[in-house]
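@channel sequence for tomorrow's demo:
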Amino acid sequence: MSTDLARWARLRDVLMLQRLETRLLLASVTADSFGTGIFTATSVLFFTTVRGFSVSAVGLAISLGSLCAFFLGPRIGALADRVGPQKGLIVLFGVRAVGYGLYLLAEQYWLFVVLACVVTTADRASPAINQALMGRLFEAKDRATILGTVFSARNGAIVLGSLAATLPVVTGSSALYLVGIGINAASFIVAALLVARLHVPKAEPAPTGRDKERRGGASPLRDRRYLAITIVNGVAQTHNTILSLVLPLWIVHATSSPNWSLTALLALNGALAMAAQVPVNRMFADFSAALRASALGGVAVCAACLAYAGAGAVGDAWVALAVLVVAMLAHTAGESLFIASTPLSFELAPKESLGRYLSFYNLGRVGQDLVGPLLIVGPLVDRGTPVWLLVGVVVLLGGLVPWALLKDDALAVNGRSAR
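structure tokens (generated this afternoon):
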């Protein structure tokens, strides 16, 4: 018993659970993600079977929402810098609560499109503002730890939300679909109330004159280093497109592996990612280490692509499954390493403009959501091995770019000197 208590105390210290800020952030993320898990698992079925919209019409509305998010994200980030990330995040939670709540009334397609644009923009903007808030509350290795802990909590809550969505999906009950959407809307109210309890320190005064020039200017568009890591982030996010869109089609149509292996592999990915993210983040917490994490992430995802291609060339079902397991292990390692490279986006951003810069960095993910399905899904499934090799090489080169460009940057050199 004493050993268990000692382990729990050690874990609590590592995860900073004794800090009120940590507990409130984790609780807000859990509430937000639980509702998101329910909505993600039921939304397409609700809008097509209950509301009667076509699949292509739903897809068009979501694409328009992603397009709005792409253009409005940095502006929302700049506004959050003015009012503070805490107030900005609370407003976004409020917009999401109202927007998702109005889905209950969206029987006309035009209203559905408007709401999709509003809530998708708020959805895509929220992670960057949440990270800006964490940047205000935590420094250096503590920030890496909370980022990893939040990622694990988010994944776990989404899984629980997806499981809760089983009831409306299995029964097909319109009433239960509406309840699920209502729970999602309410989850953002809970998250907002939790974030409102945080005590956030004031931002540093904005630099002027030469200090401002030395920090790369007021806009990330004029900072070549930040522009580079943003583009690389978009390339790196290919691993998400593969996981969510390509893998189900590839396993079912292009490999001899049993169809049930898809859920087993996704469960393996979720469990390993949750277990590994905090220690991986702590291992690559400083700027120089984050550069290595990006490079290693590219290597790992490239190896996963090679293994996925190999699984399609194997005739035996169990051998194909074994190759897919190897691919998923490499894929999960790459995913965790790319997430661990997030300190680059913090360290290269001026603290007084953290919301704007992180929102710009998030455009890499939004851009992948926009063009990734078009450029990757069809070609990978239709052409197989050659495209797998091409995607793997592109992600490998993308992961190496930050290291090649910034390994001699003052931030990297100072980090190495400190060690």
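heads up for whoever presents: The longest helix spans residues 20-50.
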